[in-house]
Amino acid sequence: MIRLSSDEIDFLMYVLDLPPSLLESLRRAESLGGRVEDGDADALRDLCGERLQTHGFGPTYEPTEEGKQLERMIDRLFIG
Question: Which of 20, 24, 9 is nearest to 73 (CA)?
Answer without folding.
Answer: 9
